[in-house]
Write a structure and sequence with these properties.
The complex is a heterodimer. By secondary structure, chain A is mainly α. Chain A has one domain. Helices cover about 55% and strands about 0% of the residues of chain A. Chain A has two helices and no strands. Chain A is elongated. Chain B has two domains: about 1-340, Rossmann fold, CATH 3.40.50; about 345-440, GMP Synthetase, Chain A, domain 3. Chain B has helices at about 10, 15-35, 40-50, 70-80, 115-130, 150-160, 175-180, 190-205, 230-240, 355-360, 395-410; strands spanning about 95-100, 110, 140, 165, 185-190, 215-220, 240-250, 255, 265-270, 275-280, 290-300, 305-320, 330-335, 340, 345, 350, 370-375, 380-390, 415-420, 435-440. The chains are: A mainly alpha, B alpha/beta.
């Protein structure tokens, strides 16, 4: 997996990216299926992992529509 | 990896050409975001004929008009409470903060979402990690927690780092000093003024701070953190290293920090900001090594896009290579040098409070001071320095005379009155110190009939 600058990510970084994308997909597509404690903690985790995406130059955009 | 001195090793050591390419890409996105979400910004960009896809280099940034604090405040007055600057709906916000209200008619009011708040802490992490703060540290935040943003971001950054974080709000200075000692605190965050205030208090309590547990002080809120004499005094009183940082409510967080190498300035967090230095009169860029006004563009807070914001701060930018830390981030030599609005003209001579403080702090016998401007005989500007010299064994008369001489030498021979005042009569400050009292009726003695600002 490469970032926007064309640099290769290491396996640990790739796992973090996958986790972010998974979280994002859950919040986008399955929000109604989550209990409050699941949903709010997922949003908080997304806000933190967004910083990783940003630091890895993956241009994560904005996530206000997901509540973060 | 945790033994690295960098919070984001790749970005902080990135070659300049790659760093600039990253900034250009982020700028394109920022302009696109502001254009699509904030009609007020969109109008400004349209009037200037700027679109995101036209931005190909950092030179293109100069096509975007400068934004001023007055415009921001006027926008708030016309569209209260936040003005026309929000890029996301208010219900997406989780934090409300405002400026301390020291400049202008109305405070700047801001909102942040959960992601933006994490980013705010992230910027502080660059500074804390870069100055050597680690998860094993115990951090005391000497700050009155309120809607003023102050050290809020630092607090969250310390939690993010895994430090044991002590919120030192709503406490007396005595309580704070005692808790710092009792808890074996290793890092203290405060304004430079308040670091000195706590040191005074410790002396009165018979506490030997210099041999205590504190190893680092994180300073913010005033330019004094980069005034060598003030920093030296703080470091000596605390027996600890003092690192300067600076931020602003308009950005939500810090944009510069001093690294552990202490190069005599503060690195700019250039993977998250573009910091231009312009001539405040012409708005032309000034080269490395020359003083100018900082103009900031921030890539971080999506809720309020900030593009080419005039800060009124004076800075001198130099290449990051002057520091041995390995960062490629440029440096503001001497941190924030003062504010464009701070300069006072006294009988034709420019007087900067920072320069006066630099002289005063060379004399640790002085506990507190105030610069007083007044009009004598209804027509003549005068400047005097009021000082507290509490030590019973200090030759106060000699010190006063020495100060008069040093101040005059540093100000083209301008005559300063220096007066010793009674102990504990000058104001003390926890946040931003205001040590300049301008009570002049008229400014200047050359017939200028303008009322004082």
């Amino acid at each position: 997996m490469k970032n926007v600058s064309g640099e290769e990510l290491n396996p640990a970084q790739e796992k973090l990216v996958e986790t972010y994308r998974l979280l994002s997909n859950v919040l986008m597509g399955h929000r109604d299926e989550l209990a409050p404690y699941e949903e709010r903690n997922a949003v908080k985790a997304l806000a933190a992992l967004w910083q990783v995406m940003n630091g890895l130059d993956l241009d994560p955009g904005q996530v206000y529509e997901l509540g973060a | 990896m945790n033994d690295t001195p960098y919070w984001n090793p790749r970005h902080e050591t990135m070659p300049r050409d790659q760093l600039e390419a990253l900034q250009v890409r982020k700028l394109q996105y920022l302009v696109e975001w502001a254009d699509s979400q904030v009609p007020w910004q969109s109008n400004r960009l349209r009037d200037a004929g700027v679109t995101a896809n036209q931005i190909a280099s950092l030179e293109d940034l100069r096509r975007i008009p400068l934004m001023t604090r007055d415009e921001w405040m006027q926008g708030q007055l016309e569209h209260p409470p936040f003005g026309p600057i929000l890029a996301a709906p208010q219900d997406a916000a989780t934090r409300y903060h405002m400026t301390s209200g020291t400049t202008g008619k109305t405070p700047i009011r801001v909102l942040d979402s959960m992601k933006d708040w994490e980013w705010i802490a992230e910027m502080w992490c660059y500074g804390l990690w870069g100055f050597g703060v680690r998860p094993t540290d115990i951090v005391f935040v000497a700050f009155g927690y309120s809607t003023f943003i102050g050290f809020w971001g630092l607090h969250y950054a310390c939690e993010k780092l895994g430090c044991l974080t002590l919120p030192g709000g709503a406490m007396t200075t005595e309580q704070r000093v005692k808790q710092i000692m009792e808890m074996g605190v290793t890092v203290v965050a405060s304004t430079p003024t308040y670091a000195l205030r706590m040191a005074q208090e410790a002396k009165q309590l018979g506490i030997d701070l210099a041999n205590g547990p504190v190893q680092r002080l994180i300073l913010s809120g005033e330019p004094a953190g980069s005034i060598p004499a003030t920093k030296k005094l703080i470091e000596s009183e605390w027996g600890a290293k003092a690192g300067d940082t600076a931020g602003m409510t308009e950005l939500g967080t810090i944009m510069i920090f001093e690294c552990a190498e202490q190069p005599g300035g503060t690195h700019i967090i250039e993977d998250h900001y573009i910091e231009e230095v312009l001539d405040p009169g012409t708005a032309d860029p000034v080269p490395y090594g020359e003083m100018g006004e900082r103009v900031v563009t921030s890539f971080g807070r999506g809720f309020i896009p900030v593009i080419r914001y005039r800060t009124r701060d004076f800075v001198v930018k130099v290449p990051g290579s002057i520091c041995g830390c390995g960062r490629t981030f440029d440096i503001f030599e001497g941190g924030i040098r003062g504010r464009v609005d701070d300069m006072k003209l006294v009988r034709g001579t420019n007087v900067y409070p920072r320069a006066v403080e630099a002289i005063v702090r060379e004399h640790p016998e002085i506990d507190e001071f105030q610069i007083h401007l007044y009009t004598a005989e209804g027509r003549r500007d005068e400047i005097e320095l009021l000082v507290e010299i509490p030590g019973p064994n200090v030759d106060a008369e000699h010190l006063v005379s020495q100060l008069q001489k040093e101040l005059a030498e540093a100000h083209e021979g301008l005559r300063f009155g220096v007066k010793k005042v009674d102990d504990e009569t000058l104001p003390r400050f926890e946040l931003k110190a205001k040590r300049l009292m301008d009570e002049r009726i008229l400014i200047g003695t050359e017939g200028e009939q303008r009322e004082r600002a």
